[in-house]
Design a protein that fits this description.
Elements: E1 3-8, H1 12-27, E2 32-36, E3 46-50, H2 55-68, H3 71-81, H4 88-100, H5 115-137, E4 141-142, E5 148-152, H6 159-169, E6 175-179, E7 184-188, E8 195-198, H7 212-228, H8 236-242, H9 245-248
Parallel strand pairs: 1-2, 1-3, 5-6
Antiparallel strand pairs: 4-5, 6-7, 7-8
Helix pairs in contact: 1-2, 2-3, 3-5, 4-5, 5-6
């Protein structure tokens, strides 16, 4: 019998919908897996099926994970879904399947000797680490209309991880963060909840106009950073350990 592989979009809803269909197939004692869109690798003796994605399926899987694996494992799985690694689907499905074999399924993340669990743990830590760094390295600029704007180019889909931090920090502000890599925005209106918005029409960043005060303060910030540097004590290797190069293109002091 051919293994059924469910293809799904690279979103939490898509991945959870794929897991839903694969899990039902496994319950029928058939082999099943999932494949993320963008991963074009084809394996022999597999039947590839398109997943019909829905919020209902995703919520059912979310509830199942929280109930049987616990909230801590759910947060690891959620962050793994945001990883840039297109093989993440098999790690997530394999971890859930491994939990089913345990007496206490809520201790699944303690079993790092399992290759699926180990991979999922690594993916979750990688996403969490990048999100943590971005809460420190993001630079906002004030647009002429008063909205605070920032751009990031992360490897992982971290907007939903960093949005709560800035929503708590700037509850009275209108702000937006643009993820150029994944073509998505976080949009937060003052005193309202933040939302994720897909960039469907091609955002033209060149059309943004910064306020006069922002241009002045940006120049002052660059001068300050330059003035406190001690050329004789420069250590580029140490700098890159604390501030990787791929963050610098969006930081005021390096632009």
């Amino acid at each position: 019998m051919l293994k059924k592989v469910y293809r799904c979009s690279d979103t939490v809803t898509g991945i959870f919908s794929g897991i839903h269909d694969a899990w039902l197939t496994k319950n029928r004692k058939e082999e099943a897996g999932i494949q993320i869109a963008g991963d074009d690798e084809v394996t022999l003796f597999c039947e590839y099926l398109e997943t019909e994605e829905s919020d209902k399926k995703a919520l059912a899987v979310e509830g199942m994970i929280k109930r049987y694996l616990g909230y801590a494992a759910y947060h690891d799985i959620y962050k793994a879904c945001l990883s840039f690694d297109l093989k993440k689907g098999e790690a997530i499905l394999g971890t859930i399947a491994a939990a089913k074999e345990l007496t206490d399924s809520k201790k699944i993340m303690d079993h790092l000797s399992n290759p699926y669990v180990h991979t999922l743990f690594y993916l979750s830590r990688n996403v969490g680490g990048e999100a943590h760094n971005l809460t420190e390295f993001i630079r906002f600029g004030e647009l002429s209309n008063g909205v605070l704007y920032a751009k990031i180019t992360p490897k992982n889909q971290v907007l939903s991880c960093i949005a709560p931090h800035f929503a708590d920090r700037f509850p009275e502000e209108n702000f937006m963060i643009y993820d150029k890599t994944h073509k998505m925005f976080v949009v937060k209106e003052a005193k309202k909840q933040w939302v994720l918005v897909q960039d469907e029409f091609g955002f033209a960043e060149a059309t943004l106009e910064y306020s006069a005060e922002e241009q002045v303060y940006s120049a002052l910030w660059k001068d300050f950073v330059s003035s406190i540097a001690i050329k004789e004590r420069e250590n580029r290797r140490c700098q890159m350990q604390h501030l990787p190069l791929w963050y610098r293109g969006n930081m005021t002091e390096f632009c």
